[in-house]
Amino acid sequence: MKRLSILLIAALFVMIGCSDESGIVGPEQPTKNLQWLSMKPAHSGAGIESIATTSFTETIEGNKGGKIKFNFNFADFGGEDVEVKGKLKIPKDAFVGVMDITIEFNDASPSVVLSPSGVTFDEELELDIKYKNLNLDGLTENDEIGFAYIAANGETVMTEYQSLNVNLNKNKVKVVQAEIPHFSRFGFVKVDD
């Protein structure tokens, strides 16, 4: 009987210690405010801002996978030539069937919209993207920059990546192997506590 009581008490401690409300599981993660980086779009001749978009679409077979490469330029609000370069890697067996995958860019934000919207994958996709000659006025060396996406619940969430580089002197931002769990908006964000 004594052994049974000890086992019951030990089991009770394990259950209490492993509950989500216990605080033993891990520290609370501080909430961070993520703000999408923005660029002023080019102005039309009438002084009205217009947002230009560029998109790339490829038909991908899920059992084969593939890559969608992009390399293009656009004029920013000051008439400077911004270069955008990179690729979306779709691993073999990431999805079943055939899909037209679109990557859409605009000149208002260093971000992309991947579609068809909401599609999830059996294997995560990887995105490499570099913006060169991007106007980064307003950012300082002390600013934390990340790469994020819009989750299914509408929240902006940081994504994992192999590396992220920001060079304010050369006006470059680059992310390598950003994990793409589903299609939505992905891009560079400023992280505020």
Task: Write up this protein.
It is built from one helix and twelve strands. The protein is mostly beta strands. The strands form two sheets. Strands 1, 2, 5, 6, 8, 9 and 12 form a seven-stranded antiparallel sheet that branches. The chain has one helix at about 1-15, and strands at about 35, 55-60, 65-75, 80-90, 100-105, 110-115, 120-130, 145-150, 155-160, 165, 170-180, 185-190. The termini are far apart. The protein has a single domain, classed as Sandwich (Chondroitinase Ac, Chain A, domain 3), CATH 2.60.220.
What does this entry show, briefly?
The chain has 193 residues and is mainly β.
Class derived from helix and strand content: mainly beta
Q: Distance between termini?
A: 54 Å
CATH hierarchy: architecture? Sandwich
Return the domain count.
1
Number of strands: 12
Q: Return the CATH class.
A: Mainly Beta
Mean pLDDT: 82
Quickly count the helices: 1
Helix content: under 10%
Low-confidence stretches: 1-30
C-alpha Rg (nearest Å)? 22 Å
Strand content: over 45%
- Give the overall shape: globular
How is the main sheet built? 7 strands, antiparallel
Give helix and strand order, one letter per element, not per position.
HEEEEEEEEEEEE
- Find the CATH topology: Chondroitinase Ac, Chain A, domain 3
Question: Keyphrases for this structure?
Answer:
globular; five-stranded antiparallel sheet; seven-stranded antiparallel sheet; 193 residues; Chondroitinase Ac, Chain A, domain 3; mainly beta
